[in-house]
């Protein structure tokens, strides 16, 4: 069955931001395996990301992480990225790898530590000024491990105060996206554990503060598409960190563990207008490739998102509405499942070719010789950042 033209038109605008750290070596607390060809610098990470974009047409931006991707001149870095056909995207802050943040950063009881964390956010905003990036992402490792360890209520007040100081420095075109996570590295309580807490802070801050939804940051069984629907309804869904999980915050390839969940999420994204570029929802990957190839892993990831988006665009909304409104439970469910079970891979391959892209980006990458070349050229590749 051919994919309708209006579906293809909507797919043309799809863009998925790649995280610079996906190209670095990563692993678990047990072992980080070194991979041949791993980038040694942010320039090499960007070069690898540019390969993904060149072969899929889906990944025109690379997210930075400060301090992992520190350089002397970010304008030069932005120009370099531009020459490779990509731009620099979200700037990810890091207030989790400094001894001072052992008991919190933006939520710390000590004003001096909070101030240090706020200064780091200001530094990230300066990077954004130079790169032209729109979004500052704040993910906090803040929390406690034992009941009574911290004043969980006061920490909310300190957080609100710290965030407002960051918010006040945002430029007209800049936004702050606040990511939530219900556990890890803290296990008893996390200061931004859920979408509601993130929403409460973002709503208090103003329209330039939005929620970042990382698909791996929910308890098993959570209905993530409901959260997507609600945040889009409220105009507060700023960005996604896409990945998939079997157990914890696994950061595996999006759509690998549960393609149906990704389909359901994309269905609500489309329903809520989130695919319309005018609504400014950023679709980012937040993944690590511990045992698989990093560039092929990123290629697979963006294609998974595209495939499930295409399937979600195939939902017959007229038939769905009719079935929903007439209370025909099974018919409504069947409409959704019909779209989900439609294999669009051959159609997308054909469409790619018609746009001058390889039908099979993975095969094209394997045939390109790029991996073999970087395996030789690059010695001593970098760890992604965690534990560094
Ligand atoms: C941590 O669990 C979060 O998912 C972060 O978004 C991210 O992995 C880290 O901050 C890298 O930037
Ligand atoms: Zn994340
Ligand atoms: Zn995470």
UniProtKB/TrEMBL annotation:
Keywords, ordered alphabetically: Cytoplasm, Isomerase, Manganese, Metal-binding, Rhamnose metabolism
The species this protein was found in: Arthrobacter cryoconiti
EC nos: 5.3.1.14
Gene3D superfamilies: Divalent-metal-dependent TIM barrel enzymes (3.20.20.150)
InterPro entries: L-rhamnose_isomerase, Rhamnose_iso-rel, Rhamnose_isomerase, Xyl_isomerase-like_sf
Name this polypeptide is given: L-rhamnose isomerase
Keyword Lyase among UniProt keywords: no
Record-linked PANTHER family: L-RHAMNOSE ISOMERASE
């Amino acid at each position: 069955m051919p994919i309708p033209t209006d579906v293809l038109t909507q797919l043309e605008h799809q863009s998925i931001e790649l995280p610079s750290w996906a190209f670095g070596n990563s692993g678990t607390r047990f072992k980080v395996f070194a991979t041949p060809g791993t980038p040694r610098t942010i320039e090499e990470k960007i070069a690898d990301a540019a390969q993904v974009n060149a072969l899929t047409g889906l990944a025109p931006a690379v997210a930075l992480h400060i301090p992992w991707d520190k350089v002397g001149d970010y304008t030069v870095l932005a120009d370099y990225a531009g020459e490779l056909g990509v731009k620099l995207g979200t700037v990810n802050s890091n207030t989790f790898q400094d001894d001072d943040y052992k008991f919190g950063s933006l939520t710390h009881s000590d004003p001096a530590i909070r101030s240090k964390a706020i200064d780091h956010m200001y530094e990230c905003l300066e990077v954004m000024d130079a790169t032209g990036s729109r979004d500052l992402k704040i993910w906090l490792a803040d929390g406690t491990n034992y009941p009574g360890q911290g004043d969980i209520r006061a920490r909310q007040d300190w957080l609100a105060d710290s965030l407002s100081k960051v918010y006040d420095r945002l430029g007209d075109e800049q936004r702050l996206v606040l990511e939530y996570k219900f556990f890890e590295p803290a296990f008893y309580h996390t200061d931004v554990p859920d979408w509601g807490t993130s929403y409460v802070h973002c709503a208090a801050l103003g329209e330039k503060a939005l929620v970042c939804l990382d698909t791996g940051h929910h308890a098993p069984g959570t209905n993530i598409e409901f959260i997507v629907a609600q945040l889009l309804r409220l105009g507060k869904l700023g960005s996604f960190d896409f990945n998939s999980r079997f157990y914890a915050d696994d950061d595996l390839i999006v759509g690998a563990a549960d393609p149906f969940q990704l389909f359901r999420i994309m269905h609500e994204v489309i329903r809520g207008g989130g695919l319309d570029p005018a609504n400014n929802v950023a679709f980012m990957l937040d993944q690590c490739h511990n045992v698989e190839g990093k560039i092929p892993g990123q290629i697979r990831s963006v294609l998974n998102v595209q495939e499930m988006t295409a399937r979600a665009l195939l939902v017959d909304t007229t038939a769905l509405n009719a079935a929903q409104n007439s209370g025909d439970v099974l018919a409504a469910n069947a409409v959704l499942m019909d779209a989900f079970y439609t294999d669009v891979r051959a159609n997308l391959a054909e469409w790619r070719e018609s746009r001058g892209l390889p039908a099979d980006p993975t095969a094209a990458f394997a045939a390109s010789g790029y991996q073999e070349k970087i395996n030789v050229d690059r010695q001593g590749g970098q760890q992604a950042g965690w534990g560094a």
